[in-house]
Amino acid sequence: MVAQAAPPTGERKELDRVVIRFAGDSGDGMQLTGERFTSASALFGNDLATMPDYPAEIRAPAGTLAGVSAFQLHFSDHNILTAGDQPSVLVAMNPAALKANLKDLTQGGLLIVNSDAFEERNLDKAGYATNPLEDGSLSGYQVYEIPMTKLTGEAVKETGVNKKEAERSKNMLALGVVSWMYSRPLEPTIGWLEKKFAKKPAIAQANIAALKAGHAFGETAELSAFEVKPATLAPGRYRRITGNQAMAFGLIAAAVQAKLPLFLGSYPITPASDILHELSRHKNFGVRTVQAEDEIAAISMAIGASFSGHLGVTTTSGPGLDLKSEALGLALSMELPLLVVDIQRGGPSTGLPTKTEQSDLLHAMYGRHGEAPLPIVAAWTPSSCFWAPIEAARLAIKYMTPVIILSDGYLANGAEPWRIPSVSKLPDIQVRFASQPNAGDDFWPFLRDDESLARPWAIPGTPGLQHRVGGLEKADGTGNISYDPDNHELMTLLRQAKIKAIEEDIDPLEFDSDEGATVLVLGWGSTYGAIGAAVRKLRVRGKKIARAHLKHLNPMPKNTGEVLARFDKVVIPEMNMGQLSKLIRADFLIDVIPINKMKGLPFRAGDLEEELIKHL
Amino acid sequence: MTLNANPGDQRGITEASNVGTLTRDDFVSDQEVRWCPGCGDYAILAAVQSAMPSLGVPPEKMVWVSGIGCSSRFPYYMNTYGIHGIHGRAPAIATGVATARPDLQVWVVTGDGDGLSIGGNHFIHALRRNVNLKILLFNNQIYGLTKGQYSPTSEKGKVTKSTPFGSLEHPFNPVALALGAEATFVARTLDVERKHLPQIIQRAAEHRGSAFIEIYQNCNIFNDGAFVALTGKEGRSQNRIYLEHGKPIRFGAGNEKGVRMTSEGRAEVVDVAEVGEGDLLVHDEHRDDPSLAFALSRIASGPSEPTPIGVFRDVQRPVYGDGMEQQLRVAAEQQGPGDLSRLLGSGDTWSVD
User: Fold this and answer.
1) Is residue B223 assigned to a domain?
2) What class has domain A13-227?
3) Chain A contact probe: residue of B26, B79, B93, B124 with most A CBs at under 10 A
4) Measured between CB atoms, which of B5, B59, B84 is closest to A471?
5) Does the distance separating the beta carbons of B7 and A460 come in below 8 Å?
6) What pLDDT is recorded for position A62?
7) CATH of residue B164
8) The two domains A13-227 and A239-425 share their CATH topology (first three levels equal)
9) ipTM of the complex
10) What's A239-425's CATH class?
11) Searching chain B, which residue's CA lies closest to the CA of residue A297?
């Protein structure tokens, strides 16, 4: 627990929530600035949700629209569900950042700009014919022009850093300014800077000096001052967590709960690489991570590890899932437990690597040749990425099957407060390795459990249970190669029945309905927050509506059809062309109403509200 | 809470078989062998099975991994653990097995199409990492299971179903490729070498790290006689250059030929009578620098002329899985064994009452 800063003196206007966006060049450190502001807000006790938005290029040409990187934070004194539709505050570090983001700023919103960057060259690069700070085009906003570069240069003079390093500290000056305006404590950021630059004290001092200078500027210049009180959250210990971090923690937790060593085969890919990074740090848990030569090798290694008795995992995004398809079929045919984590991004092909999309639901369902069913679970908030791998591992091990876990770029990089769960309350995952022959003196690798239809997991090193498995069709029971027509049909049906029966073993679909509501909004994945916020707005307007959110996409909970049948209309918002809509239509013969968005960005609650009201 | 490095330990699996009394039968599965009559694979299978008992590893501690192709049916015939994988991916699957379970002996069986065409990437990276696995590449210079297309080791000009006007492609030299991929153990033998083949298998098994053996294997259906220059009555003595560590390289019916290094670093075949034995190249498997082994790999442009047989290179380099185990140990010592509560509560936290 970090001590809170004493509230600054003077009158502060109380707000219930703020959406702030930091925007600058990709080299300006906007992601870091946003994260520090988020961290301070979390420690202050606000509820929050974040959305980083950055280009695929690491350093696109400075000052251009292509190189603009942004980070949006929504923080509040009450429970919130999304990173906010439109920022009410925009911090723009240069003309390009202003141009790319101004259209989102609410009318009358607060605009904080680094006026030093508004010189001819930058204006040209951003395509401004005239300087927007001078031509009156910003009259609809409250504009604070702050000479950030100059102020930073003066603030860091004493620390002895060179001009380039001084320039790089200006993001901390901006952070200092908004920290004063929104009454955020500086101490967590100072502590963080001291730790991060422990080996470069001059740089640490320069950043701290810039941060403090920004704070002092805010106070001296008497900028507007606001206060957003801490939110009322359920009692407990909290931390801030991103989806990818939660996913990594969940994978470790799943292995611990199953008492299996964790093995990750992975190839770097945006936006999944952070899971590889995080897992690679925790070798003291016995986590083995291999950065494979390609996506196919990554899943193949995980299959080898699973065959050998580890919890095999591979992490990827859409293009990687394409490449893994054949190996995924092998794992399915071998009936081995395996977790495939897909952090979806805009497609097809390379698509939009840093943008979000619910691109792969049908790919996960059907992206393999042959009849190849497997369970799919989907996270719905950043912190639920902790739940997903634990549930997936439970199913994978119990039913001897690969499981696909769907997350997406919005969840992966988004952050929220997370009430740290008690380890004692995590589910136990039972692993029973085969230890003796199961057919007289013989061992039959495909002699199934009567109830779960799972085959036994016999791992190398176990005497007498040597067996060979592969992708060729196997005879029911013995597992020997079989080209028998009847056997192939039987095995196809068994593989399907095994997965279908999982519907008995998962939580039913919950729904939340107003009395007399006739319209159900059904969602899956990261639309959870936006749907929730839109439904909340509609209820405030006195509308009756119901909502439900699928966490298991295959099989769906057993009561899904019954829930859907309660309503006259089922509306499905998705960040794709209607993939869940197709599944629901096919499985339940309901003519659902899709609402689709393919912009690489999450739904805005306000837009969704307006779409939904058309159907009420 | 700690996790066992080896899940086998959880159930107290130990060396249950008495490895001293192992016989060939312990390694023979009950599956009917289904290669074409006369296929070179039979001889390789027999030689491998006969070599197994002397390795001192019980069958339950062995995993044979393969891809797709005629050679890749091999694991079904071994009474060990086995994975018949997908096309080309055997070295990657085997990397997962070997890295997860350092207590196992892991073998890969692949072919020239499986290992060098569709799976070329995994082949070179397994060798580069020096994963503790042994790769047997059955090179018959043809695609058999798909019925006779040219392969990446087929000679240029090869007429096959997919190259009716002759192949335009220059072939791989698998030994040279393996050396270029930083392999620490590289050898070549022939399917018909009933004594030499088991010896090379034994050498590969004893090697710590990745071992690569190219086995010239006759496909009597689609490429019969591809190695006749080395297996025919006359050719055997004239064209097989046996490599023996520490000995001058000599061959020929009367040992009348030899190999020497030219001044520009190329290995060439010479008449011993002309140059004298003192000028011959003395084979050194353990030389750290791979250029000697590489020069030897280039003596023959294909198996139609004098060709070295035996161990080209056998050197020590840290093994991938050993390094992995070491990192796990050090992490557990320095940070303490993994504690889930501590992990979840790491970083900045705050309490709400």
Assistant:
1) yes
2) alpha beta
3) B93
4) B84
5) no
6) 87
7) 3.40.50.970
8) no
9) 0.95
10) alpha beta
11) B92
Handedness of CA B81, B84, B87, B93 (dihedral sign): negative
User: Domains in chain B: how many in total?
Assistant: 1
Q: Distance between CA atoms of B328 and B192, rounded to whole angstroms?
A: 44
Structural domain boundaries in chain A: 13-227, 239-425, 432-505, 511-613
CB A373 within 8 A of CB A499: yes
User: How far is Cα B214 from Cα B235, in angstroms, rounded to an integer?
Assistant: 19
pLDDT in tens, A19-77: 999 999 988 999 999 999 999 999 999 999 999 988 888 778 889 999 999 999 999 99
Q: CB distance from B122 to chain A under 8 Å?
A: yes
Using the beta-carbon criterion (under 8 Å), do B92 and A293 form an inter-chain contact? yes
Q: How far is B107 from chain A (nearest CA, A)?
A: 12
Nearest-angstrom CA–CA distance, A285 and B97? 19
Which of B306-328 are b and which e, b meaning 16 or more Cβ less than 10 Å from the residue's Cβ? Answer: bbbbbbbbbbeeebbbeebbeeb
- Provide the pLDDT for residue B55: 96
Correct CATH for A511-613 of 3.40.50.970, 3.30.1360.70, 3.40.50.720, 3.40.50.920: 3.40.50.920
Confidence label for B201 from pLDDT (cuts 50, 70 and 90): very high
Q: Is the residue at B66 inside a domain?
A: yes
- Per-residue pLDDT tens over the stretch B244-303: 999 999 999 999 999 999 999 999 999 999 999 999 999 999 999 999 999 999 999 999
pLDDT digits (tens, 9 = 90+) for A190-224: 999 999 999 999 999 999 999 999 999 999 999 99
- B350 contacts on A by Cβ (under 8 Å): 1-2, 42-43, 45, 237-239
Question: Tokens 């219930």, residue?
Answer: A16
Structural domain containing residue B202: 19-232
- Domain presence at residue B58: yes
pLDDT score, position B9 = 45
CA–CA dist B123, B266 (Å, integer): 27
Structural domain contains residue B195: yes
Helix ranges (H only) for A501-559 are 528-540
Please check the confidence at residue B3 and state whether its pLDDT lies above 70: no
Interface mutation target, options B31, B86, B130, B329, chain A, most CBs of A under 10 Å: B86
